Amino acid sequence: MSDTDDVGDEATGVSNDETTGGDVDDEATGDGYTDDEVITHAHGAGGSQMAELVDSVAVSRFADAEADVGLAALDDGSVQPIDDDHSVVVTTDSHVVTPLFFRGGDIGRLAVSGTVNDLAMMGATEPLALTSSLIIEAGTPKATVEAVTESMREACEEAGATVTTGDTKVMGSGEIDTLAINTTGVGIVPRGKHVPDAGLSVGDKLIVSGTVGDHGISLLSEREGFDFGGDLASDVQPVNDLVAAAMDAGEVTAMKDPTRGGLATVLNEMASKADVGIDVEERAVPVSGPVSSAGEVLGIEPFDVACEGVVVMAVASEDAEAVLDALRDTPKGEDAAIVGEVVDDHTGQVVLDTGFGRRYLTPPEGEQLPRIC
Amino acid sequence: MATNAESGDELQFRDPEKAEQLTEKLETLMDEIGEPVNVMHVCGSHEQAIAKFGLRSILPDDLTVRMGPGCPVCVTNMPEVDEAVALAEDGAVVATYGDMFRVPGTEKSLADARDEGADVRVVYSASEAAEIAEEEPDREVVFFATGFETTAAPTAAVLASDPPENFSVLSAHKYVPPAMEIVAEMPDTDVDGFLAAGHAAVITGYGLFEDFVSEYDTPVVVGGFEPIDILFALTQLLEFIRDDEAGLANAYQRCVTEEGNVPAKDAMWDVFETTSGEWRGIAEIPDANLVLSDDYAHFDARQRFDIDVDPGAADPLTEECICGDIMAGKADPDECELFGEECTPQDPVGACMVSSEGTCKIWLEYGGQPDL
Asked: How far apart are CA B198 and CA B43, in angstroms?
């Protein structure tokens, strides 16, 4: 395990998705980069350095167009009105992952699911079109690329999506690591019916749609060469059907998929964007036995690593049970649970009741490294 | 450790009801003592569990539990890291635990060296480092070893089992007993009792602490790492304090014996010997570091290589770092002006922010002192 972090990214949830990225503080408005500064792993690790980079290279340079949700919102996608009744949702995500094929999925399934899910997080549960750009290292077996794109096709079928345009580039051997995929998604929502990640308010209940930590813990343990008996697998899957069921059943006020930085990160983002506090019951959060055990062995918290097939949603209190029932009626939502609520206290922070005492749940900082004891 | 068959909430050592009973007992004991009590533990894993389970939020108000110099990575001196960086920059494969990867040297950490092209690898064990040496016989593979007896014994086992000739060890191993002695000898120390680290005691045996208890007239209880283990050990310690007794108790009986793991101890003392060393931010301490004995000198990276250390200039921020006070139990991380601002796990100033065993990292990871 010589390279714990090079593309350790999808496991710990660090993708190259510019639409999320922690809190961007006001000081980090971006002209502060000097000639001798270079990009390091820390800039891709989802912490404050990443937020600063995103602001410096992107947000500060692209003034918001006419948008209900623009780049500066750092939400899962943008929302722009196209007429009086409709808005278009656009999201994009680049995917690199080691290994390309992992337990429970592969980079193709990840690339489609990630983008379909980002559309769904904005309320666009019926993807209109997807793009697919492949950047391939010379020397990669053609069969590998075909297996990946076949997996993309299957994931599209599952999500009711289609790839309508794309691009293929080949780079020299050593110029890129095997394969990178960018997917962009487009969807339509009724005007004003999009779901921002900052829409939660005091009293809302928080629902998690399935067990957390599966993707990150499975990939980390696979990459580190730990065999926990085959019980671990990535949860990568499109969840637009799940989201549609929830939105039909009640008022979903905010949504996020806990990819990079896991549940801990998205809850903190939601709390700080909405200027509210969040209380979470640790024991109510679904975590599978194998993930819990492997997390302890690895010294890594399941709440801190990526999920790729789970949604965190805030739901109006009176609708919470109905939404929960609707989720549990779907095959992907059997483990759904109400895990906490939005409170008028500790603004911008998440407090975890561990069953013993209470503590703040903080977002993980950077690369997850194994512990010595 | 939960097995796959049972979830965490079924574990007897994570039973919230038992925790509540023990907390009530702590309240009663504190009432009987009638004055504030300061307990020090000397183990990052204890701090982890205390922070992770939010235990400070349920302890009696007058009972303060603070971490002392119990993080072997944190007390690693910058020149020790400089040696590892120099070896990596000279072309050796340097293998080390994840905890050590980002620990700042004077100018660079191993992570910095790797970003600049050096071959630095993170491993889980000494044997994994030896395997690299076996797989790559043309490379010199140096294991930059850290940890107390818990990891020193496995390092010794690898050295004693005839590793490849291209394998060597740069030891930054530390020895547990000095960690408590340093604090007990500080003139302004205010520790009423020590919670000793259960996993190191698995190797050393709890008998190791007998001399300490009598010499410093301070009670010691060896404790495990589940919430119930810690709360139970604290009740034992408060009983000693209430009775004004410098006692020694083993509250981790399912793992720790009086003698410890005798073969592991024998192997360790065959391979290592103690020497004085500078613990970062604390002091030069006699018998605090473990170095390779003469019998194993041929595997000692310090003997094999002429290590050309060019430490460069230290980050001026290190002057403001209060890791020393934090490790001495005199300050909490949030009293440091750098905490969570200039000093983060990604860009640490002091080693306490790097290791999962470090107080600052743990506080940042688990939300710090609960004012809840």
From this structure: 9
- The answer to whether the Cα torsion of A347, A348, A354, A356 is positive or negative is negative
Q: Inter-axis angle of helices B227-242 and B44-52, to 10 degrees?
A: 110
What mean pLDDT do residues A345-369 have?
Answer: 86
B37: β partners = B63
What is the value of pTM for the model shown? 0.83
**pLDDT for A35:** 56
Domains of chain B: 16-316 (3.40.50.11740), 317-363 (no CATH)
User: What mean pLDDT is predicted for residues B328-353?
Assistant: 87
Is the pLDDT reported for residue A22 higher than 50? no
Q: What is the mean pLDDT of residues A12-29?
A: 35
How would you class B371 by CB atoms within 10 Å of its CB: exposed for 0-12, middle for 13-18, buried for 19 or more? exposed
Spell out the residues 6+ positions from residue A129 whose beta carbon is closer than 8 angstroms to its own.
Answer: A161, A162, A163, A164, A165, A185, A186
Q: Could you report the per-residue pLDDT of A221-265, keeping only the tens digit for each? A: 888 777 776 689 999 999 999 999 999 999 999 999 999 889 999
Assess: ipTM above 0.85: no
Whether B358 has its CB under 8 Å from any CB of chain A: the answer is: no
Alpha helix positions (H), chain A: 9-12, 48-57, 107-121, 142-159, 214-223, 240-249, 262-274, 289-298, 320-328
Give me the CATH code for the A205-360 domain, please: 3.90.650.10
All residues of chain B having their beta carbon less than 8 Å from the beta carbon of residue A283 are: 9
* Contact at CB, A289 and B4, closer than 8 angstroms: yes
DSSP string, B185-219: HSTT---SEEEEEHHHHHHH-GGGGHHHHHHHT--
Q: Which residues of A312-340 are buried (b: 16+ CB within 10 A; e: fewer)?
A: bbbbbbebbebbbebbeebebbebbbbbb
Predicted confidence (pLDDT) at residue A50 exceeds the cutoff of 70: yes
Q: What is the CA radius of gyration of chain B?
A: 21
**Separation of alpha carbons B292 and B34, rounded Å:** 49
- Residue carrying the six token digits 């922010």: B353
* Cα A334 to Cα A114, A230, A236, distances in angstroms: 21, 21, 16
**Sign of the alpha-carbon dihedral angle for B227, B233, B234, B236:** positive
In this complex, do A370 and B368 lie within 8 Å of one another by their Cβ atoms?
A: no
Interface mutation vs chain B, best among A36, A37, A359, A367, most B CBs within 10 Å = A359
d(CA A141, CA A197): 40
Would you say B65 and B233 are in contact if contact means Cβ atoms under 8 Å apart? no
Cβ distance of B344 and A370 shorter than 8 Å: no
Per-residue pLDDT tens digits for B247-273? 999 999 999 999 999 999 999 999 999
